[in-house]
C-alpha cells in the first residue's frame, strides 16, 4: 500500500485535521481561534479541518458552552466525541504478548496477556494465537474495530515486514496477514520507534518553523535497537556502533549486548547457564559475573555516547532489562555516557517492562487514527 510522504508509523500530525485532533484530544486547544494560533494555519483551513472531524464523529462542538466575547459569533468549545470504534494494540515479547483495547481517546477498556514463547512456534502458528487473542479481547464489545497495531523486536519495514532473529522471524509479512484477517488499517512497528511514538502522541505540536526537541531511544533487552525523532516523526536506526572488540567475542551489538548474547558470554566464560535475573543475583557473590555485568553497562554507554555524537539529541530515553534488571547498571551506564559526552543530554529511564509494553501497545493501536483520522473514520463508516 502506498503511503504519502510523512505518513510512516508515528509520524507527527501532518494534515490540518490530524493537527486539530491532536490538539483537541490533548486539551491544548479547544476553540477555532486557539487552533489557528497553535497551528499557524489559516481560518478557512481550520474551519474545513474542524468540519471534517465533526462530520467524521471524532470531535463535537459544545454549543451549550459557547461564550460571547464581543461582536460576531460566539466562541464554541470543541472536544473529543464518543467515536463508535475501538482500537487494538499488541506488544509482542519473547515469552509474553500484551494486548490492549482502547477507545479513540486512548483510554484502555480491556487488556490481556498471551503467555506464548514465540521462538517455539512457527510464525504462522503464532499469528493464529494472536488473532484468537484479538478476537477474545474484542468479544462482546458493541463497537467495530477501527484499526490495530503490533510492535515487535528486531526491524520492521514500512510495509510491515518483520525481521526479528531473537523470535526466529525473517521476512514475515505480519501487516498483510493481519489486514487479511481483520480488514482494517494495520500498523506494524519495532518496539523502539513505538517508545518514541508514545511520547510524540502526548507532546505538544512544535510552533510553525520551530525544530521539535530531538529524542534518542535505546531498547536493550532480548534485542538491541535504537530510534531517533526528527522534524516529521520517528526513524529506527539501521545500524548501531559495534562494541569494543575482545578475543573470541561477538562483534555486533545485537550478538554481544542483547540478553541472549550476554548470557552466551557468561556461559563461554565457564560460569554456567542461567537467566539474567540469576546472573544479577549471583553477581553479589561472584566477581566474574559482576565484572561482566559492569562491562555490558559500560559498552552500552559507549554505544549511546557514539549515537549521541552522531544524532545530537536533547534527551536519551532508556528502556529494557539490561538497565532495569541490574540495580548497578544505570549508574555505570550514566557515568560512561557523561564521561564521553558531558551533561548536555538529559538521561531518562522507563523503569519497568510493564510500563514499556503498556505504552507501546497504546501508541501502535492509535497510530493510524492519529495520522489519518478522517480516513480511518470513513473506513469505520463504510464497514458499518
UniProtKB/TrEMBL annotation:
One Pfam match: ROK
Domain of life: Bacteria
Database matches in InterPro entries: ATPase_NBD, ROK, WH-like_DNA-bd_sf, WH_DNA-bd_sf
PANTHER family named in the record: BIFUNCTIONAL UDP-N-ACETYLGLUCOSAMINE 2-EPIMERASE_N-ACETYLMANNOSAMINE KINASE, ROK (REPRESSOR, ORF, KINASE) FAMILY
Protein family per UniProt: Belongs to the ROK (NagC/XylR) family.
Name the UniProt record assigns to this protein: Crp/Fnr family transcriptional regulator
Lineage of the species this protein comes from: Bacteria, Bacillati, Actinomycetota, Actinomycetes, Mycobacteriales
Amino acid at each position: 500500500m502506498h503511503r504519502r510522504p510523512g505518513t510512516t508509523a508515528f509520524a507527527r500530525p501532518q494534515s490540518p485535521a490530524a493537527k486539530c485532533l491532536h490538539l483537541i484530544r490533548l486539551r491544548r486547544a479547544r476553540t477555532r481561534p486557539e487552533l489557528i494560533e497553535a497551528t499557524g494555519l489559516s481560518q478557512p483551513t481550520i474551519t474545513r479541518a474542524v468540519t471534517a472531524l465533526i462530520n467524521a464523529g471524532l470531535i463535537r462542538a459544545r454549543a451549550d458552552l459557547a461564550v460571547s466575547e464581543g461582536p460576531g459569533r460566539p466562541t464554541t468549545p470543541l472536544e473529543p466525541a464518543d467515536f463508535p470504534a475501538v482500537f487494538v494494540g499488541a506488544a509482542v515479547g519473547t515469552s509474553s504478548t500484551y494486548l490492549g483495547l482502547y477507545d479513540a481517546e486512548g483510554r484502555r477498556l480491556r487488556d490481556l496477556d498471551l503467555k506464548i514463547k514465540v521462538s517455539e512456534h512457527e510464525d504462522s502458528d503464532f499469528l493464529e494465537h494472536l488473532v484468537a487473542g484479538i478476537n477474545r479481547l474484542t468479544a462482546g464489545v458493541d463497537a467495530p474495530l477501527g484499526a490495530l497495531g503490533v510492535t515487535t523486536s528486531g526491524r520492521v519495514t514500512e510495509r510491515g515486514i518483520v525481521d526479528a532473529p531473537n523470535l526466529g522471524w525473517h521476512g514475515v509479512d505480519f501487516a498483510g496477514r493481519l489486514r487479511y484477517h481483520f480488514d482494517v488499517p494495520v500498523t506494524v512497528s519495532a518496539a523502539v520507534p513505538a517508545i518514541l511514538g508514545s511520547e510524540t502522541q502526548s507532546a505538544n505540536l512544535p510552533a510553525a518553523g520551530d525544530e521539535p526537541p530531538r529524542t534518542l531511544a535505546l531498547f536493550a533487552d532480548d534485542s538491541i535497537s535504537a530510534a531517533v525523532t526528527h522534524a516529521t516523526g520517528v526513524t529506527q536506526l539501521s545500524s548501531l556502533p559495534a562494541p569494543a572488540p575482545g578475543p573470541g567475542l561477538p562483534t555486533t551489538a545485537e550478538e554481544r549486548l542483547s540478553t541472549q548474547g550476554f548470557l552466551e558470554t557468561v556461559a563461554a566464560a565457564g560460569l554456567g547457564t542461567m537467566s539474567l535475573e540469576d546472573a544479577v543475583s549471583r553477581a553479589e557473590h561472584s566477581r566474574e559475573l559482576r565484572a561482566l555485568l559492569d562491562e555490558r553497562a559500560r559498552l552500552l554507554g559507549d554505544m549511546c555516547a557514539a549515537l549521541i555524537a552522531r544524532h545530537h539529541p536533547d534527551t536519551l530515553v532508556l528502556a529494557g532489562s539490561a538497565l532495569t534488571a541490574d540495580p548497578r547498571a544505570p549508574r555505570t551506564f550514566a557515568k560512561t555516557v557523561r564521561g564521553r559526552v558531558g551533561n548536555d543530554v538529559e538521561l531518562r529511564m522507563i523503569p519497568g517492562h510493564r510500563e514499556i509494553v503498556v505504552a507501546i501497545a497504546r501508541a501502535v493501536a492509535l497510530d493510524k487514527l492519529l495520522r489519518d483520522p478522517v480516513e480511518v473514520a470513513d473506513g469505520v463508516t463504510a464497514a458499518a
